[in-house]
């Protein structure tokens, strides 16, 4: 099912949370709820810790929500859609028009991510945070695409903050609709280029190590992509200690809005599933802005993109799925939905050792 959010007015006049207000209200995980969840797992009739990361995810979610029963049934994959001016440097295999085409297909339910979400009983929520054209997708955009960062900053600082706040707003609206789990998805031709640029600056790593072929670039195309990123960083000199400066100079509106979704999820104490490389970079920005956000993020899979592992390591995250996926659209996050559903069902419904009159396993040194 595709859910359409209706925006009823300019975000600046809607009383939405500002970035500064959001960061100030994000709290740490509830350690007491996590301890209760750990004891619940230990009491379930199975060997201790035998479900590994499935158990860890449920304990983490208990800490996020502050509730010892875990409900992730109402879930949404949020697709942040935006265009990137750097496409004019020949860094992609397809044209910019594909962004709007796929974005509208999200509304029709005609994408791989939509098919996966139907199977997982999750909704898909497409959002226009900066596409070059208007479509039927709900608009939360600051501008009609970014500028080419090879020639100057991708956006203004005000636009970057506005896009982050749009993501915060979307998370809040979905929380009000009763969603208990959000996943990060995106669509934007050229966004592996912007993500590689942001990752290179934030991790202070060589561009070559941060840059992959995206959606099937040739070797010559990869060279152009690397050169464009190097030139963009040289021209703009983004400050690695200032995540918003990095974002606004070499990033994209989709990355900004996804960072806001992470912040908004944490504000509303809702788990947020990261997808792959692009959403990982967005999550890294959110964590750099507010370290407490890290506790509200769950890594779904390790993307095939070369910098994916480094981005996860920078946040201290370990992903459940190692499937060599690199499609984007939130497909990796959607693949984790069934595992989370299974883990929650076991945790909430399984018999305990006491129920079956059997001695409980003990933690041994």
Shape descriptor reads elongated
Work out the helix count.
Answer: 14
SS-based class: alpha/beta
Radius of gyration: 20 Å
Mean pLDDT across residues = 92
List the helices and strands and how they pair.
Blueprint: H1 19-25, H2 31-43, H3 53-65, E1 75-82, H4 97-108, H5 112-119, E2 123-130, H6 157-176, E3 181-187, H7 191-202, H8 207-210, H9 219-236, H10 243-250, H11 253-267, E4 272-274, H12 277-289, E5 297-299, H13 308-314, H14 331-349
Parallel strand pairs: 1-2, 1-3, 3-4, 4-5
Helix pairs in contact: 1-11, 2-3, 3-14, 5-14, 6-10, 6-11, 7-9, 7-10, 7-12, 11-12, 12-13
Q: In words, what does this structure look like?
A:
This protein is α/β, with parallel strands linked by helices and 365 residues long. 46% of the residues lie in helices and 8% in strands. It is built from 14 helices and 5 strands. It has helices at 19-25, 31-43, 53-65, 97-108, 112-119, 157-176, 191-202, 207-210, 219-236, 243-250, 253-267, 277-289, 308-314, 331-349; strands at 75-82, 123-130, 181-187, 272-274, 297-299. A 5-stranded parallel sheet has the order 2-1-3-4-5, with helices on both faces. Helix 12 links the parallel strand 4 and strand 5 (297-299). Helix 2 (31-43) runs antiparallel to helix 3 and helix 7 (191-202) packs across helix 12 (277-289).
């Amino acid at each position: 099912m595709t859910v359409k959010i209706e925006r009823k007015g300019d975000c600046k006049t809607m009383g939405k949370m500002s970035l500064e207000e959001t960061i100030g209200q994000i709290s740490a995980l509830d350690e007491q709820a996590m301890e209760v969840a750990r004891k619940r797992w230990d009491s379930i009739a199975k060997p201790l810790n035998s479900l590994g990361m499935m158990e860890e995810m449920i304990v983490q979610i208990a800490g996020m929500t502050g509730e010892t029963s875990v409900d992730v049934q109402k879930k949404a994959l949020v697709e942040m859609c935006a265009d990137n001016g750097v496409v004019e440097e020949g860094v992609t295999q397809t044209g910019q028009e594909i962004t709007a085409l796929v974005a509208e297909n999200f509304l029709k339910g005609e994408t791989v991510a939509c098919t996966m979400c139907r199977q997982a009983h999750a909704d898909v929520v497409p959002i226009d945070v900066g596409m070059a054209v208007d479509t039927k997708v709900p608009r939360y955009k600051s501008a009609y695409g970014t500028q080419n960062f090879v020639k100057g900053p991708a956006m203004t600082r005000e636009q970057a903050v506005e896009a982050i706040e749009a993501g915060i707003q979307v998370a809040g609206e979905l929380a009000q609709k009763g969603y208990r789990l959000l996943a990060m998805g995106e669509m934007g031709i050229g966004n592996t280029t912007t993500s590689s640029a942001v990752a290179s600056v934030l991790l202070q790593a060589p561009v070559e190590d941060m840059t992959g072929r995206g959606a099937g670039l040739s070797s010559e195309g990869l060279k152009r992509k690397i050169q464009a990123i190097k030139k963009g960083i040289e021209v703009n000199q983004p400050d690695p200690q200032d995540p918003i400066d990095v974002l606004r100079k070499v990033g994209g509106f989709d990355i900004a809005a996804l960072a806001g979704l992470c912040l908004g999820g944490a504000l509303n104490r809702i788990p947020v599933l990261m997808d792959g490389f692009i959403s990982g970079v967005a999550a890294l920005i959110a964590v750099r802005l507010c370290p407490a956000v890290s506790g509200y993020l769950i890594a779904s899979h390790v993307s095939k993109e070369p910098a994916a592992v480094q981005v996860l390591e920078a946040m201290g995250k370990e992903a459940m799925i190692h499937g060599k996926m690199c499609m984007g659209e939130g497909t990796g996050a959607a693949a984790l939905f069934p595992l989370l559903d299974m883990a929650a069902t076991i945790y909430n419904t399984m018999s305990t050792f006491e129920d079956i009159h059997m001695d409980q396993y003990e933690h041994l040194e």
